[in-house]
Amino acid sequence: MEHPSFFLPLLLLTIIAFIAVAGQPYNNITLSSFLTTTTAGSRNLSWLSPSGNFAFGFLPLPTNSSLFLLAIWFANLPNTTTLVWTPNRERPLPPNSSVILTSDDGQLSLRDPSGTEVWSPGAPEAAYAAMLDSGDFVLAASDSSVLWNSFSDPTDTILPTQTLSAGTEIVAKLSDDDFSKGRFKLRMQADGNLVFYQIAVPTGYQYSPYWAANSLMANSRLVFNVSGSIDLISPNGSVLSTLTSATTKSSSEYYHRGTLDYDGVFRHYVYPKLTAVAGGTAGWLLMDFKPVDICQNLITTLGSGACGFNSYCSYDMKQMVTCQCPVGYSWVDPNRTYMGCKPNFTLPSCISRVPSEGFQMVRIEKLDFPNDNYDQFNVMNEVDCEQQCLDDCFCAASIYDGISNCWKKKFPFSNGRKGNYISRVTFIKVSNDNNLPSSPLTKKRTWILPDSIVLTSSIVLNFIIVSTTLIYFHVSKRKQSHQLNDNVLGPNLKAFTYKELEEATKGFSEELGRGACGTVYTGYLCPELTGTPDLAVKKLHDIHPDIDKEFTNEVKSIGQTHHKNLVRLLGYCNQDTKRLVVYEYMSKGSLASYLFSRSRPPWEQRVKIMLGIARGLRYLHEECSTQIIHCDIKPQNVLLDENFNPRVSDFGLAKLLKTDQTKTNTGIRGTKGYVAPEWFRNSMISAKVDVYSFGVIVMEILFCRRNVEKEMEEEKALLNFWVSDCYNDGRIDALVEGDEEAMADMGRVKRFLMVALWCVQEEPALRPTMGQVTQMLEGAMAIKPVPPSL
Ligand SMILES: *[C@@H]1O[C@H](CO)[C@@H](O)[C@H](O)[C@H]1NC(C)=O
Ligand SMILES: *[C@@H]1O[C@H](CO)[C@@H](O)[C@H](O)[C@H]1NC(C)=O
Ligand SMILES: *[C@@H]1O[C@H](CO)[C@@H](O)[C@H](O)[C@H]1NC(C)=O
Ligand SMILES: *[C@@H]1O[C@H](CO)[C@@H](O)[C@H](O)[C@H]1NC(C)=O
Ligand SMILES: *[C@@H]1O[C@H](CO)[C@@H](O)[C@H](O)[C@H]1NC(C)=O
Ligand SMILES: *[C@@H]1O[C@H](CO)[C@@H](O)[C@H](O)[C@H]1NC(C)=O
Ligand SMILES: *[C@@H]1O[C@H](CO)[C@@H](O)[C@H](O)[C@H]1NC(C)=O
Ligand SMILES: *[C@@H]1O[C@H](CO)[C@@H](O)[C@H](O)[C@H]1NC(C)=O
Ligand SMILES: *[C@@H]1O[C@H](CO)[C@@H](O)[C@H](O)[C@H]1NC(C)=O
């Protein structure tokens, strides 16, 4: 033993495994035993576990019966073969291959027909091997200590009593009948985070994570408890979080397995042993799975997303994720749908003088391809969005958000998803030769209003056209000329007249809210009809009087920001001394009212909101052409859209306020409000002021209370001090008291808490950037231990 560092882990493994072998009945597989692929599949010619539950031997591929995998499988199931482990998934072997436990050096050796070794676990000196009833195949020394076991080298499945230790991963198969390494993996990282990654096929490039459970403790592990739950366990054995919850299906009556399926979802399945033995057809029953909706969770910046290019993802939570092709498109390879869809017509080319000739647009509701737009503009209705794409020879599809945004897409589309949670509409350009249901464009032009108000009376219709035209005067212009008006349809914002906004807000009659720099009123696209509000019109006061041109420039630069976690600016008014900004209307109000209402919002919802705010701020700080520091992050300035997605509002306005405005106002809010300490020190103001305020919000979201509660006992009154004290005293439980959902997810609570504590550090340089914050919250970046106490 000249490598002591190698010796120690081996010893540990040996002790653990020794118990496993010694505690279970087993049949010795003696040296020089072997199996060959010509005997494959015959139950009596594989090596069985004592009860016959599991078999070790060769299985033919479902797609080619003359190629074989060395495998462990559930041997008792009637007409399904469920493989749990294989070492040669990338290299199935032809007939006359063999696996042998060599007599000379006690090695397990997989060999091709010529006798060349293809795989070996590299654990020599075994005295015997055994297929255990747990599903573990072990190589043991003569004193029964384990030299190697299949549980330590998993494929895509874990079984009860199995552990994924730090640094190990499981990789999904490529498709239902292709066992080679697929597009998803689940990795138990050494930093204690359990992370799902999408990976590229065949290069193996690792995309960003799409789900994670975090322990914050190095050397944590994932354990499949015999009692049926799959948990993240700390080095000292305490449960940190649960990947799939416990079932009542005992392992004496049911077979269990946890598999990362080829669609990227980790599922816990059971199979009743009784029906298995009796030859019934119950099949595997689904118990629990993660992530809850991969179609929503997985957005990649590179690659195709959860489904292949041009394909879209939908998930009903009971079956496998479904990928579909849009109308006019078909599978590149119907047997390998992950390869995506191809148009079954020739795409429009810019050689043709009339781009729209021979093509039409097909409207698909609740379908979105969120990334990779090549152009965006504001439109007033979806017909414009549709026509713009049809007239553009580069455009293969356009997407309308139902409010005012239209995005254009080139080929291929990625990250496609469809579901009721999506409010966008997609228009796909297809050839006229496809005999397809036509969309509004190809018929007579119709007016489509937000929320698809269905109108039967033509009088009402005319009325709407008139009133809509009043506000969006350019619509009529556009109809007459039938030509593009760049000013209107380009990225520019709409410049409203004061009168238009007065009408839209019914004379500024419905006040929505009041803030430091203005009052917000509800606005309607068609004020004459009582419908749902569409606009939030903010009348600014205390604006520099001599800011005229600057105002327009500033507002236009705000108009260039586009992120799903930011409230969209639709237009502005700069007339005489009147300054107004017009935003899209957010139907679920502010985070403040959501968070501090009487009943506590669901934990997952709060986590989603927290991550969304972080992404919105990261965008403002790091992804805009010019950095935007918000300066006034607080729950009142975070609004919620109809799906409770957080949207940061009021950004970019700080610069317009009178110079000392920000300071006096923030001063009022007290020393330990949302305002970073440097405001009071006259030192440099950087983006780190927003990081500070974000840290405060995270604490408020975690514990559903305001940062200052004067009524509370002194030690609890100021949230960040109380949190810091509790953290340092190891009393995190006290903070989530009464919140069962959070208590069941302490791993994440701790992680979010640590991030928050780093954010609210006095010293700006100690605070992370929003980019780092986002990654730490998502679990993609390790968090420095022990934030200094406040
Ligand atoms: C072993 O398998 C062969 C071929 O599948 C079969 O004919 C034979 O009956 C089996 N023997 C036993 C003891 O099960
Ligand atoms: C099955 O695999 C063998 C060996 O690689 C190959 O020769 C044969 O063509 C394959 N058969 C089919 C149907 O793909
Ligand atoms: C399993 O086999 C039985 C009997 O051979 C058959 O009736 C049943 O349909 C099969 N089930 C499945 C799921 O293939
Ligand atoms: C496999 O081995 C047997 C016996 O050694 C031999 O008869 C047979 O031809 C071999 N098959 C192949 C495909 O090599
Ligand atoms: C298995 O083989 C080992 C080594 O030859 C021996 O010590 C042990 O008693 C055997 N166990 C059983 C259950 O046969
Ligand atoms: C399995 O779960 C039970 C009940 O939740 C618990 O008591 C036991 O300690 C767990 N076992 C392991 C190995 O974590
Ligand atoms: C395990 O560690 C955690 C965190 O360090 C601690 O809270 C817990 O009390 C420890 N449990 C045991 C059984 O030592
Ligand atoms: C084109 O796609 C449509 C619908 O997706 C399909 O019905 C049609 O058969 C396809 N045409 C060709 C030539 O593949
Ligand atoms: C798809 O699989 C079926 C059956 O396995 C086969 O007949 C067909 O040729 C395959 N299609 C393609 C395009 O490979």
Automatic annotation (TrEMBL):
Residues annotated as signal peptide: 1-23
Domain Bulb-type lectin: 32-152
SMART domains: B_lectin, S_TKc
Pfam family, one: B_lectin
Catalytic activity entry: L-threonyl-[protein] + ATP = O-phospho-L-threonyl-[protein] + ADP + H(+); L-seryl-[protein] + ATP = O-phospho-L-seryl-[protein] + ADP + H(+)
Keyword terms: ATP-binding, Disulfide bond, EGF-like domain, Glycoprotein, Kinase, Lectin, Membrane, Nucleotide-binding, Receptor, Serine/threonine-protein kinase, Signal, Transferase, Transmembrane, Transmembrane helix
InterPro entries: Bulb-type_lectin_dom, Bulb-type_lectin_dom_sf, G-type_lectin_kinases/EP1-like, Kinase-like_dom_sf, Pan_app, Prot_kinase_dom, Ser/Thr_kinase_AS, SRK-like_kinase
Enzyme Commission no: 2.7.11.1
Gene Ontology cellular component list: membrane
Source taxon at top rank: Eukaryota
Molecular function as annotated in GO: ATP binding; carbohydrate binding; protein serine/threonine kinase activity
Localization in the cell: Membrane
Domain Protein kinase: 506-781
UniProt-listed PANTHER family: G-TYPE LECTIN S-RECEPTOR-LIKE SERINE/THREONINE-PROTEIN KINASE SD2-5 (PTHR47976), G-TYPE LECTIN S-RECEPTOR-LIKE SERINE_THREONINE-PROTEIN KINASE LECRK1 (PTHR47976:SF108)
Name used for this protein in its record: Receptor-like serine/threonine-protein kinase
